[in-house]
Structures are given as structure tokens and as C-alpha cells.
Design a protein that fits this description.
The protein has two helices and two strands. The chain is α+β, with helices and mostly antiparallel strands. It has one domain. It has a two-stranded antiparallel ribbon with strand order 1-2.
């Protein structure tokens, strides 16, 4: 499940935490929000940011032979 969590501090700072999004696509999700909030001071990437999706595929080839003996 993808979630965005925001903590707004009394001095106006906003902390944003993204979970459930694998890879750098989280930056695309939050770009518009960050543009409206103002200047980004720091970013800390989680392990989900560095994770990669795994795709597995398998091809099976079969051959039927017939012998006359």
C-alpha cells in the first residue's frame, strides 16, 4: 500500500515520508506537492528507494519425437 505521511511543525517545517513505492518513482509522486510546499532542505532515501522490482520470465521448449523401432 502506498502512503504519504506529512508532519507539520509549529515553525512551519514539513516532514514528508513516503512508503510503499519502490524505486525512484516516489520522487515523481511527490514533486508537485514539494513544489507547492516550498524549498526542500534535506532528503533521506529509504531502502525502498534503492530496491528494484524483479521480473521473472521463463520459456519452455518441448520437442516430441517418434521412433519406429
Amino acid at each position: 500500500m502506498e502512503t504519504l505521511e506529512f508532519v507539520i511543525y509549529p515553525d512551519g517545517r514539513v516532514q514528508e515520508k513516503v512508503t510503499g513505492i519502490i524505486g525512484a518513482s516516489c520522487a515523481e509522486v511527490t514533486a508537485a506537492i514539494e513544489a507547492q510546499l516550498g524549498q526542500v532542505l534535506t532528503q533521506e532515501h529509504t531502502s525502498e528507494y534503492f530496491a528494484q522490482t524483479v521480473q521473472q520470465s521463463a520459456a519452455v521448449t518441448t520437442q516430441a519425437t517418434f521412433s519406429n523401432w
